[in-house]
Amino acid sequence: MITILSRYTATVAVLVVAIGSRVASSMNNIVPGRKCCPVDRLYDPEARFCKLSGTDVDEYRQRLVNRLDRGFRVEANVSFNMTYYPPPFCNTTEVLVDVPAEEVRGLMEAHPSPIELPPDYCFDLTPSDELVGRTCWPRDQYCDRVGYTCVNKCCPAEHMYVNGLMGWVECKNNEMPFTLSTYETDADGSPAGRSNNTVLPYWDGHVLHKFQTIESSFMLTTDGNLHLIYEGEEWIIPNTGYCLEFHAGDGPPEAADLLVFVYPNAKRPVSYIFWVTYPPSVICLLLTLIVYATLPYLRNAHGHYVMFYMACQLMDFVGIMIYFLVYIDIKSPLCIPIGYFFLFAILTTCCWLNVICFDIYWMLRYNNSTNKNTSKSVRTILYHIYCWGFSSIIVSTGYLFQHSQNETLRELALDIGEYDCDIYELYHYGTIIFLWIPTCGMLTANLVLFLLTAIYCSRIKSELQKFRQTDSKTEIFLVYKEREKILANTI
């Protein structure tokens, strides 16, 4: 009995080992692979997008496996396990390309009996039942080929822009094909006829939210440049100055529009609005300064303040003209100094306007009392200390915040030189603290001073009116004064 049991146990053990080895052998003959599209979709090379296969999922999967079997000439005991993965993730120097059918056949010939499919490739079927592969290739090699145009995509593959918190845009999954036509160029570099080039989108690794959205029609030329109309002028943006992306906003992804997102340091064309505003303003300010400096009766204390106000405004306008006409790259060492120069010019202009308003109120309100004991030179010195000192403190504090080691202070900085050489975002914390609060405070003070001056003048006028009605001598004095004016005008 013991002998029978031992023989039975040995037989079962042999069967278990045999079955286990057979299962292990069959498991070793399963070749894993990457499927480019989900299980119910096939790849359309014309739209470069996955679309519904229109057939049964199991039938479609079997057709793909049979196509792989025939192409790679595998043995009968080898089977493919195709699992869907997102497209191969290309780094910033690569572009996702479709491998032509002949190159797929060459890949099959190089791997006649694969242990596994190449891990950096994905495979799928086309509507014509052709086997297609997708992989990452070096961008500088593939984009130079005839028949291809590479274009920068703002988000990674299969992502698009949607509105997020604080009005910023963020990248989220989408199911829209990135299709775009290209155009040939004529001798002048302008778009001509439509080209048959295939557009290959790539992602440069940056997801920035501080782009300027251009909601305008544009044309992509075969050299990768973008041609669009901006403020009535043709703007040619090189391939390093923009990115393209679908923007759904708050609506459904199906209603998204393909928009241009221009990098902050891209040089914009000078429009006619610039030529009819800034150059005439500079000329008028310069002529006014010459008049104030030439005529003796204008060279008083108040004229002195007006001249400084116009000089600061002239400095601001000239700087803006230079900034628009001369391209200054964001990486240039002049970028940050120019940004803080603009801030200093704006603040000093507002300060001198504030001084003018205050000085008018002071002269009218306290002319009979305090003004006699207060020297004009002392007030002028105090005004200079206020204008230049206040502006310098604001600019220096903003610079220290931006270069501070404290993260909280850096968040409150102006970010000049980060996205643009000027103040780029109008509602950032730094812009509010260092620009809007000082300027709005001074403008509010000017408005208050104007109202107080108007009220005071109205009160003096009413008192004079009462005095004129009760004092006959005042009437005679006003009559003689009016005659004097007539006589002076006659002479």
TrEMBL record:
Residues spanning the signal sequence: 1-26
Membrane protein topology class: Multi-pass membrane protein
Taxonomic superkingdom: Eukaryota
Localisation per UniProt entry: Membrane
Keyword Magnesium on entry: no
Protein keywords: G-protein coupled receptor, Membrane, Receptor, Signal, Transducer, Transmembrane, Transmembrane helix
Gene Ontology molecular-function annotations: G protein-coupled peptide receptor activity
Residue ranges of domain G-protein coupled receptors family 2 profile in the record: 270-491
Any GO BP annotation: cell surface receptor signaling pathway
Residues spanning the membrane: 272-295, 307-328, 340-361, 381-401, 433-458
Principal subcellular localization: membrane
The keyword Transmembrane helix belongs to this UniProt entry's keyword annotation: yes
GO annotation, cellular component aspect: plasma membrane
Similarity comment: Belongs to the G-protein coupled receptor 2 family. Mth subfamily.
Protein name per UniProt: G-protein coupled receptors family 2 profile 2 domain-containing protein
Native source species: Acyrthosiphon pisum
